[in-house]
């Protein structure tokens, strides 16, 4: 199976998942809330796992000589992590999360608005990491290992703040 075929297969699976979540939400919104919340949590865990691992791969990739076998292996690992785990998990987390915010919480509550702002910030970090995958793939990275070590902590800080907002609901 080619990379393109794998990508199409992943997109079809993701589309089926998103359609299923949306259909379940409209067919039985009360019963669906718990299932959609479970899907949301699973997607967020998957998204965060990738967001925490990708910058760590960049740290090690910085140490590899350009064009080396090690560098080429990192390129494959980074691309696959982004395409097959991080991107689909983010999409599912957003779809399920927005459904929950709309149907369950009616987009009300300061904690929810704060969470949404932090998730937008996490999505911006995701976009920046996606650009870095392209830069590494083209041997154009100009950032140091130290930079990527610091960037490795940004998703963690955002995650901690989101968890506090969701669990404590301070406002």
Q: Can you describe what's shown?
A:
- Helices cover 85% and strands 0% of the residues.
- It is mainly α.
- The termini are far apart.
Fraction of residues in H or I helices: over 70%
For the largest beta-sheet, the strand count, sense and barrel status come to: none
For this structure, the quaternary state is: single chain
End-to-end Cα distance, whole Å, is: 50 Å
Rg on CA atoms, Å? 18 Å
Characterize the overall form. flat
Question: How confident overall, as mean pLDDT?
Answer: 93
Poorly predicted ranges: none
Strand content is under 5%
SSE order in H/E notation?
A: HHHHHH
Question: Structural class given helices, strands, pairing?
Answer: mainly alpha
What is the tally of helical segments?
A: 6
| Quantity of strands, as a count | 0
Topology (SSEs and partners):
Layout lengths: L2 H25 L1 H35 L5 H35 L6 H28 L7 H7 L2 H15 L3
Helix pairs in contact: 1-2, 1-3, 2-3, 2-5, 3-4, 4-6
């Amino acid at each position: 199976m080619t990379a393109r075929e794998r990508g199409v297969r992943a997109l079809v699976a993701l589309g089926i998942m998103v359609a299923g979540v949306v259909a379940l939400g409209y067919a039985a919104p009360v019963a669906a809330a718990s299932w959609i919340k479970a899907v949301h949590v699973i997607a967020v865990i998957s998204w965060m796992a990738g967001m925490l691992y990708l910058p760590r791969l960049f740290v090690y990739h910085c140490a590899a000589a350009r064009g080396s076998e090690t560098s080429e292996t990192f390129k494959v690992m980074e691309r696959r992590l982004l395409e097959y785990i991080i991107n689909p998990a983010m999409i599912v987390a957003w779809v399920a999360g927005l459904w929950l915010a709309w149907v369950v919480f009616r987009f009300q509550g300061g904690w929810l608005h704060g969470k949404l702002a932090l998730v937008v910030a996490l999505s911006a970090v995701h976009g920046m990491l996606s650009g870095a995958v392209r830069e590494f793939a083209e041997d154009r990275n100009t950032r140091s290992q130290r930079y990527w070590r610091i960037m490795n902590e940004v998703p963690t800080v955002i995650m901690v703040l989101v968890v506090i907002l969701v669990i404590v609901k301070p406002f």
